[in-house]
Design goal:
Blueprint: E1 7-13, E2 19-20, E3 36-42, H1 76-82, E4 91-96, H2 102-115, E5 120-124, H3 129-138, E6 146-150, H4 154-164, E7 168-172, H5 189-206, E8 209-214, H6 227-231, E9 234-240, E10 246-254, E11 262-268, E12 271-274, E13 293-300, E14 303-315, E15 323-326, H7 330-343, E16 351-357, H8 369-381, E17 389-391, E18 394-395, E19 401-402, H9 407-416, E20 421-425, E21 437-441, E22 444-449, H10 452-458
Parallel strand pairs: 4-8, 4-9, 5-6, 5-7, 7-8, 15-16, 17-20, 20-22
Antiparallel strand pairs: 1-2, 1-3, 9-10, 10-11, 11-12, 13-14, 14-16, 18-19, 21-22
Pfam family, one: ChlI
Region (Lon-protease-like): 352-465
Protein name: DNA repair protein RadA
């Protein structure tokens, strides 16, 4: 009996490429509504015959590693995120919101690479060549080894690569490049998949470091099919508040180094510069004690950062008091307020609570819970915490303080910046006393406490103190 090729109807999401056998109103992968439409698919028949190999298989110990050694990008903060620098043949995806500074950062990387006598090709599909030249004049990124092309056709981009033979290739952006002969418009699922696959193949075969700029959706995720994140070696997110010059590059995937590493940058009128010591941007230096403030020590990758938390508590007659946050997860604040009311006797059900960070910092580390509690308690009782105090610790629903990771690094950074007292979670166990114990690290006094109530009593932030 001969098997015939049958065509069956499948349904594909236009946002992420997810496929299903029947129509649904909501994508099961990216959860987008109304993005699933019918697409014809042909079931494959027969078997794939063996074909010629590109290179013979060899024992893994005989594979040379010299060609894949790290090469600096010329920007130390970016090298930190990448795990050491640029790797020949690596495909890197840099995603971020419009206007955050992706093009400015990559133009600086291209210029630094050209200054090291490595030929660089910068392909722009969103701007004209003259517009990129104006930015290069402003940021001092002019060099003879930096080549610029304005193209939106994949075939033309591949021809430029064949002619220039660069060491570094920058595509700004992958959603603007279209492949002729492939259905769909540039930026669609099919087009992005084909363009990315072709550029990654070129990067691997020619040993070219390739950086692709990607767009993001309104919820902050990378636009296009999820296969785009799978085919590349490194995924970087460029983050920043439009009202601040501070920018952060965060590694979400890295085959050559650690993930969740962070690099800090300052975006100004004359370009982008690395910020090797960003802690001072997130801490306000007060001349006097201010109620409702506390400094937390968070970990961004392997880097400790100090950030100041500010709180304001005001009475309200509303049945539903406001809980407003900036830089802090609102659900985390609600949990901290519930613990303060249940285990510390701080009644906040008839108060509006506003909590914010200084300098646009975003605190996602659970170790900042104790600093939030200290700031709220101080604002509620209009009492300032002692000067030079940092607080760190994750708060449990029972009011206990849980230990945090990388405590020595956090304490060392706080001591370096002049803080003299740190309140941290203590060792738990029946043999430990509930009386706060103290020890010294680099001239800083460290106080161990068991729960959030003990921490507030220690800092004299309870009613009657």
């Amino acid at each position: 009996m001969t098997k015939s090729t049958r065509t069956r109807a499948t349904y594909r999401c236009s946002e992420c490429g997810w496929e299903t056998a029947k129509w649904v109103g909501r994508c099961g992968e990216c959860q987008a509504w109304g993005s699933v439409a019918e697409a014809a698919a042909t079931a494959p028949s027969g078997r794939t015959a063996p074909s010629a190999v590109t290179s013979p298989a060899v024992p893994i110990g005989q594979v040379p590693v010299e060609d894949s050694a790290f090469r600096t990008s010329g920007i130390p903060e970016l090298d930190r995120v990448l795990g050491g620098g640029l790797v020949p043949g690596a495909a890197i995806l840099l995603a971020g919101e419009p206007g955050v500074g992706k093009s400015t950062l990559l133009l600086e990387v291209a210029a630094q690479t050209a200054r090291m006598r490595h030929r660089t090709l910068y392909v722009t599909g969103e701007e004209s060549a003259s517009q990129v030249r104006l930015r290069a004049d402003r940021t001092q990124a002019i060099h003879d080894e930096l080549y610029l092309a304005a193209e939106t056709d994949l075939g033309a981009v591949l021809s430029h690569i064949e002619e220039v033979r660069p060491t570094l290739l920058v595509i700004d952006s992958v959603q603007t490049i279209g492949a002729s002969g492939v259905e769909g418009v540039p930026g669609g699922v099919t087009q992005v998949r084909e363009v990315a696959a072709a550029l990654v193949r070129m990067a691997k075969t020619r040993n070219i470091t390739t950086v692709l700029v990607g767009h993001v959706t309104k919820d902050g995720s990378i636009a296009g099919p999820r296969v785009l994140e799978h085919v590349v070696d490194v995924v970087l997110h460029f983050e920043g508040d439009r009202n601040s010059r501070f920018r952060m590059v965060r590694a979400m995937k890295n085959r050559f180094g650690p993930v969740d590493e962070v690099g800090c940058f300052d975006l100004g009128a004359d370009g982008i510069t690395a910020v090797t010591d960003p802690t001072g941007l997130f801490v306000e230096h007060h001349s006097t004690q201010v109620p409702g403030t506390c400094v937390a020590v968070t970990m961004e990758g392997r880097r400790p950062l100090l950030a100041e938390v500010q709180a304001l508590v005001t009475p309200t007659a509303s049945e539903r008091p406001r809980r407003t946050t900036s830089g802090i997860d609102s659900s985390r604040l609600s949990m901290v307020l519930a613990v303060l009311q249940q285990h510390c006797g701080i009644r906040l059900h008839n108060h509006d609570v506003f909590v914010s960070t200084v300098g646009g910092a975003k605190l996602v580390d659970p170790a900042s819970d104790l600093a939030i509690a200290v700031a709220v308690a101080g604002a509620c009782f209009d009492v300032a915490a002692p000067t030079g105090v940092v607080a760190m610790g994750e708060i449990g629903l029972a009011g206990e303080l849980r230990r945090v990771r990388d405590l020595p690094q956090r304490l060392g950074e706080a001591s370096r910046l002049g803080f003299r007292v740190a309140v941290v979670p203590g060792e738990r166990g029946p043999a430990k006393s509930r009386t706060p114990e103290s020890w010294t690290v680099d001239g800083m006094r460290v106080l161990d406490v068991q729960d959030v109530a003990s921490a507030l009593r220690l800092l004299r932030l309870t009613r009657g103190d």
